[in-house]
Amino acid sequence: MSNTSVSVAAEVPALLESLGVARDSFTGGTLTVRSPITGELIAAVKEDTAAVAKAAIDKAHEAFKAWRLVPAPKRGELMRLLGEELRTHKQALGRLVSLEVGKITSEGLGEVQEMIDICDFAVGLSRQLYGLTIATERSEHRMMETWHPLGVTGIISAFNFPVAVWSWNAALAFVCGNSCVWKPSEKTPLTALATHALFDKALARFKAEGGTAPEGLSALIIGGREIGELLVDHPKVPLVSATGSTAMGRAVGPKLAARFARAILELGGNNAAIIAPTADLDLTLRGVAFAAMGTAGQRCTTLRRLFVHDSIYDAFVPRLKKAYESVPVGNPLTQGTLVGPLIDKGAFDAMQRALTEAKAAGGTVQGGERVNEAAGADAYYVRPALVEMGSQTGPVLHETFAPILYVMRYSDFDAVLDLHNDVPQGLSSSIFTNDLREAEAFLSARGSDCGIANVNIGPSGAEIGGAFGGEKETGGGRESGSDSWKAYMRRATNTVNYGRTLPLAQGVKFDVA
Q1: CA 356, CA 147: separation in Å to the nearest integer?
Q2: Contacts of 250 by beta carbon, 8 Å cutoff, 6+ apart
Q3: Which domain covers residue 370, as residue numbers?
Q4: Percentages helix, strand, coil for the chain, rounded to the nearest 5?
Q5: Is residue 212 one of the residues assigned to a domain?
Q6: How far apart are CA 238 and CA 151, in angstroms?
Q7: Options 47, 85, 111, 266, the catalytic residue
Q8: Minimal CB count within 10 Å: which of 85, 208, 386, 432?
Q9: CATH value at residue 278
């Protein structure tokens, strides 16, 4: 375990300024920011008033009216320039992600790479916003569907992927002809300020090279819950993409529904993996370790439930326990560290409550204790916890945003499929097997009920090319790749009569003199 000391507070101001963030935006404000690495106070960000936020939304609405008229490939050029800025500043922004969230270096850089990847995707998408030509029963008619920009896209992001989630939404929204208003997590405003500064650089280049873009195309509003509620309730925001807890989704969803706005909700995940008798145990060990312990268990796709077949349980679980005992926990900026800190004390307390409940339910707990306390009183490092449970009960049924893996035995494949699906959440899932029938059954209609289902790879670590999201209490929304762009546009079905008669559909007759 690394105890390397570091003054995060001394590094952050210069890093922010190198990314184009003005010093007065992160000093002297009321929103205090602490780095989970040391617990140090690293910034005091200025919060926006309700009046400022409303004005930003109104301005974004006016910007949308102009941006929707810019040809989609031209809009794609802005995303190409944003991708260039992100490539140029990948090291600095990735470092800032690590400092503000506590991710290990490769994960901080990997998050920025996701942003670059989605910009590349959006550039191509800008020439592929396809509609359909539809067969019509009427002669000398043509029927088709067209897709049009929707309006202001509201984005509410969580702390654990503070910049990637914005890019998944914003890159698609911009090429679809929308403007964006972003409300980041109160825990991670610095990475949002830096990202928005890079967007402003890309926008300035876009205009300098002859592009046309309105003022207010992208807005950042900093604040607490009340600012988020303002965005959700605003009548000029037809789509809100919100990432967070299921409780947050229960509050946001009905408000959007009440005004007939669209929702993309990315909520809780209680993800499971099944280890079948034919699994490659070396591959499985690596897959499980990353999925369960990566990002200190603070991914919505983190592996939280593990079902191991009776025939291999005694061979596999001791190996997994050894990995848990030896995984390097400590300063995420130090080479070799694999598990950094929890985001804050609230996350630590929630983890301890879950472990206490697991013990009360008969579970055997390994790990879970606080470590590396020399890093600072307000820095919360924990040894990842492996909990052997006799059944799926108590805290196993709930998502705890921390590195806790509940391990259970199974003997019957059909029964374990039922257990796998018997939780309220439905985000991500996986099976480790070399049995073709088991793999295909897991991916079939009777298999995993999650939005993401994998074979011989863990549930964590999605790529931007596939639509990201889940079912049930996970919210049902989709972000990023595939045809997710359709959520950011409105569809129109068009029929064109190029003849001289007026035949009606379904053989209806309506002749007037």
Answers
A1: 52
A2: none
A3: 271-464
A4: 40, 20, 35
A5: yes
A6: 6
A7: 266
A8: 208
A9: 3.40.309.10
My answer on whether 225 and 292 are in the same domain is no
- The string of pLDDT tens digits covering residues 327-363 is 999 999 999 999 999 999 999 999 999 999 999 999 9
At 88-146, the pLDDT tens digits run 999 999 999 999 999 999 999 999 999 999 999 999 999 999 999 999 999 999 999 99
> CB–CB of 334/4 below 8 Å?
yes
When the pLDDT of each residue in the chain is averaged and rounded to a whole number, the result is 97
Same domain? 223 vs 317? no
Residue with tokens 């500043």: 89
Q: Is the pLDDT of residue 50 over 70?
A: yes
Residue type, 185: S
- Amino acid of residue 85: E
Report CA-CA distances (Å) from 298 to 28, 264, 333, 375: 30, 21, 17, 20
Axis crossing angle, helix 72-88 with helix 164-175, rounded to the nearest 10: 150
Distance in angstroms (rounded) separating the CA atoms of residues 158 and 153: 16
For residues 108 and 187, state if they share a domain.
yes
Q: How many residues does the chain have?
A: 513
The one-letter code for the residue type at 459 is P
Q: Count of domains in the chain?
A: 2
**Of 422, 389, 59, residue with least CA distance to 236:** 59
Cα 389 from chain centroid (whole Å): 29
Same domain, yes or no, for 189 and 287? no
Question: Mapping DSSP to helix (H, G, I), strand (E, B) and coil, where does residue 201 land?
Answer: helix
Each residue of 166-187: pLDDT tens digit?
A: 999 999 999 999 999 999 999 9
The angle subtended at Cα 28 by Cα 23 and Cα 33, nearest 5°, is: 85
What SS3 class is residue 144?
Answer: strand
Residues 243 and 387 in one domain: no
Q: Using CA atoms, how far apart are residues 481 and 463, in angstroms rounded to an integer?
A: 8
pLDDT in tens, 399-425: 999 999 999 999 999 999 999 999 999
pLDDT above 50: residue 3: no
266 as an active site residue: the answer is yes
**446 three-class SS:** coil
The confidence score (pLDDT) of residue 462 equals 86
Distance CA 341, CA 233 (A): 35
Three-state secondary structure call for residue 218: strand
How far is residue 369 from each of residues 348, 356, 362, measured CA to CA in Å? 10, 12, 18
> CA-CA distance, 164 to 242, in Å (whole number)?
13
H helix runs in 68-188, sequence order: 72-88, 90-101, 105-125, 164-175
Inside any domain, residue 457:
yes
Rounded-to-integer distance, Cα 441 and Cα 448, Å: 9
Q: How far apart are CA 165 and CA 153, in angstroms?
A: 13
Q: Are 397 and 424 in contact (CB under 8 A)?
A: yes
